[in-house]
Amino acid sequence: MTGIIILIAVGALFLPQYGLYWRFRRRRWLHSRQAIDDALAHLHQFQHDGRQASVESLSNTLGTSTKHTLILVNRMAQLDLVVMTGQGMGLTAAGHRWALQIIRAHRLFERYLADETSVPREKIHAHAHQLEHTVTEAQVDKMDADMGHPTFDPQGDPIPNAAGDMKEIESQKLVDWPAAKPAQIVHIEDEPPEVYAQIIAEDLHPGMIITIVDMSPVRIVIGTPDAEHVLAPVVAANISVREAPAERIEPPGVPLTTLKHGEQGRVVGLSPACQGLTRRRFLDLGLTPGARIERVMQSAFSDPTAYRVRNTLIALRREQSDLIRIERSAWTEQPERTEQPEQHQQNEGEIGV
Question: What's the first-to-final CA gap in the chain, in angstroms?
């Protein structure tokens, strides 16, 4: 009997959605900044897409009951952030500014996480969503300046500037693009996460040049310079493209992989496919435009290969070397080294990437 009473008490406290603990959390969330931020972001997205937001659409996005959504909407109306019309809900001027601030923070955090950290691509959106509610407008301005005022996030969404202006690129869905016509990926939708994970698994990203090789009601085969990728149409619908520009997308030059023993070259840039922590490591190692690089030796199993750059030996795997673009130059015989092995070791570091 005592055990039954304990179970009833625990259920009354912690039963999901209905227990006292969950009711307390929901009530606390409704009065938080995050609740308003998420609601305003939803309303802005609907407005941007030319759709009319409603209490029902907001409830579905936030995962809240109609009752609690109405409480939140009433609170935002008191703050002069939303207005109710016969067609549904809309943003006031103040609500629009607030929404742009949240979108700007979110996309800047996504850009930072993609370029400066090792957070996996499929987790960047969730991390940025947690961080966007923790910064002030002044902190967002500083972050924007420190990052060099980036204009697009890793998925190709435009990042608003301090004035709320955003660059927009005309595009259309990949599923509507004609076969055999080169296209450039300009945007990848990161929701739902399950679909985004399939696109990531194919290593597709904004900036990539692709061509539809084959299309049917059950699959779309797209070709890239290095491989073919097979996607279900429902997955391909999350990719937006535009006509491939006439100019080359890759930096000039050839991949570092083409450098032969006894040759040296000059770094001209990194491939657009080189993103995140890998790009940051390459730059930290001095693989910047103009740096001289020499192929020194290869392992017994042909991979990795050792290169000398800025008086440091680094070991790169083939897939890493393919991301570095160089201009080859004929090898010029260097004066014979006279230092002792101990001195040589002091002058050269050895780093494996």
Answer: 63
